[in-house]
């Protein structure tokens, strides 16, 4: 499982130009089953993703396809998490 932080950069003001492509990219991640959650970092610091069922190399390639990353609107940080203890509703994350 991975947590991806997409932190706004100094180029944040360009976000409106690339938001449509960014949203299409997020939808593609959900449609493929790689993304489980997408949300905003508060206060207005960027976004975050929870990714699963994807290897790190493939996730890194996918993240590079995000228009926000490509246009340096955000910088991406990928953190791998190995769940040790989870609520039974999320037991699928341990597999």
What would the keywords be for this entry?
95 residues; alpha+beta; four-stranded antiparallel beta sheet; 3 helices; 4 strands; 28% strand
Tell me the span between the first and last alpha carbons.
10 Å
| Low-pLDDT windows of residues | none
Average the pLDDT over all residues and give the rounded result: 95
H and E order: EHEEHHE
Counted by DSSP, the helix tally is 3
Task: Provide the spatial order of strands within the biggest beta sheet.
Answer: 2-3-1-4
- Give the assembly state of these chains: single chain
The count of β-strands is 4
Give the overall shape, derived from the CA principal axes.
elongated
Helix content: 25-40%
Fold and architecture overview:
Helix content is 32%, strand content 28%. The protein has a four-stranded antiparallel sheet, with helices on one face. With 95 residues, the chain is α+β, with helices and mostly antiparallel strands. The chain contains three helices and four strands, in the order E-H-E-E-H-H-E.
What is the strand and helix layout of this fold?
Elements: E1 2-8, H1 15-31, E2 35-41, E3 46-51, H2 56-64, H3 67-70, E4 74-80
Antiparallel strand pairs: 1-3, 1-4, 2-3
């Amino acid at each position: 499982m991975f947590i991806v932080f997409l932190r706004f950069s100094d180029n944040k003001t360009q976000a409106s130009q690339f938001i449509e492509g960014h949203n299409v990219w997020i939808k593609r991640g959900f449609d493929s089953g790689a993304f489980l959650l997408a949300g905003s970092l508060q206060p207005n610091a960027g976004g975050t993703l929870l990714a699963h069922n994807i290897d790190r190399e493939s996730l890194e390639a996918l993240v590079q396809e995000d228009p926000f990353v490509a246009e340096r609107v955000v910088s991406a940080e990928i953190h791998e998490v190995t769940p040790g203890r989870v609520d039974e509703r999320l037991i699928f994350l341990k597999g």
